[in-house]
Amino acid sequence: MAKKGKKGKKGKKDKNKKKKDKKGTTADRRTVKDLLEDEIKDLYSSEQQLTKAIPKMVKGSYDPALATALAKHLRETQEQVIRLEEVGRLLEMKPTGKKCEGMEGVIKEGAEALEKEGPEPILDLGIIGAGNRVEHYEIAGYMTAISLAQRLGAGEVVTLLEKSLAEELGAEQTLRRIATGLMEAAAA
Ligand code: FE
Ligand code: ZN
Ligand code: FE
To answer: 25 in a domain, yes or no?
Structure first.
């Protein structure tokens, strides 16, 4: 809806009107389905990047519970990649072809935590801070995609995405619990 006020000024939306995206859809014809496809591609790229990043976090962890939790989430992440491929089949689209720049940035910052030196609990807490940024970013993506899929009445897609969302929420909670324990061992 165009906002009232600022009379005479046409919003940016009008400027985009004739622009076409890669599918040849004009901007004003973009649908919930188009948006959902973009979100799925973004998530697919994120999960792919994470299958390479999480093993480094596992290796960098000192606390065995942290390493175990991250290793478990790596396996879940590999499942999530497969799940998104299934979502692609259901939506008759390819999940490939987009790079999630946001996740790339989050992972880059996480790599900084792995390069730091200091007492083990402090280093682990740094890894958890990075890991939970990843989880929150993914949670936002899955929640958005679920809402869009619900709007389309794509029940099977919703079910698949909700499975992954539950894993992300679980991972976030586990990391936070481990952090609580490490806090006591860490010098303030
Ligand atoms: Fe994930
Ligand atoms: Zn992204
Ligand atoms: Fe995750």
So the answer is: no
Q: Is 26 helix (H, G, I), strand (E, B) or coil?
A: strand
CA of 50 to the centre of ligand 3 (A): 8
Find the ligand nearest to 39 CA.
2
Q: What are phi and psi of 41, to 5 degrees?
A: -65, -40
Centre of ligand 1 from the C-alpha of residue 62, in Å: 22
CATH number at residue 147: 1.20.1260.10
Please give the tally of structural domains in the chain. 1
Query: Are 59 and 68 in contact, with CB atoms under 8 Å apart?
Result: no
Give 47's DSSP letter.
Answer: H
What's the 168 CA to ligand 3 centre distance in angstroms? 5
pTM of the model: 0.88
pLDDT in tens, 123-144: 999 999 999 999 999 999 999 9
Q: Is the pLDDT of residue 102 over 80?
A: yes
The Å distance, Cα 82 to ligand 2 centre, comes to 18
